[in-house]
Amino acid sequence: QVQLVESGGGLVQAGGSLRLSCAASGRTFRSAAMGWFRQAPGKEREFVAAVTWGGGNTYYTDSVKGRFSISRDNDKNTVALQMNSLKPGDTAVYYCAASFVAELPTDLGLYDSWGRGTQVTVSS
User: Fold this and answer.
1) How open is the CA angle 28-31-34, to the nearest 5 degrees?
2) How confident is the model over 26-71, as pLDDT tens digits?
3) What does the alpha-carbon distance between residue 43 and residue 53 come to, in Å, rounded to a whole number?
4) What are the φ and ψ backbone dihedral angles of 90, each rounded to 5 degrees?
5) Distance (Å, rounded) from C-alpha 71 to C-alpha 121?
6) How far apart are alpha carbons 69 and 42 in whole angstroms?
7) What pLDDT is recorded for position 92?
């Protein structure tokens, strides 16, 4: 397992940008697929984006395609989520997660380790 800590959340106006970062500890980070999820009040946690262990492949939920970008730096043990053109509907707590059982998982049940989350609020 890895320990994950998210940062970079905050309050932003619609149309603005935020960059989330997830710092990982543990030697196994390089072998994990990494994902970002989000959970809005009263809703289930949902998949946002994922990146393979090497960073060569990514996948996004349809609602963020073209606006969000996931990347990782295995030398620094970090994964980032660049969020542009933010909308009020993007408001949620964003979680970083690691998977050691799948290459590019979208199912939260395939993730082994989770951070505590960072709040993103987009005002209209």
Assistant:
1) 100
2) 878 889 999 999 999 999 999 999 999 998 999 999 999 999 999 9
3) 29
4) -85, -5
5) 22
6) 26
7) 98
The whole-angstrom separation of Cα 124 and Cα 117 is 23
> Are 29 and 14 contacting, i.e. CB atoms less than 8 angstroms apart?
no
Longest dimension (CA), the chain: 42
Tokens of 61: 């939920």
Distance (Å, whole) CA 20 – CA 63: 18
Where is 114: in which H helix or E strand? strand 113-114
Q: Is 33 exposed, middle or buried (0-12, 13-18, 19+ CB in 10 A)?
A: buried
Tell me if residue 108 falls in helix, strand or coil.
helix
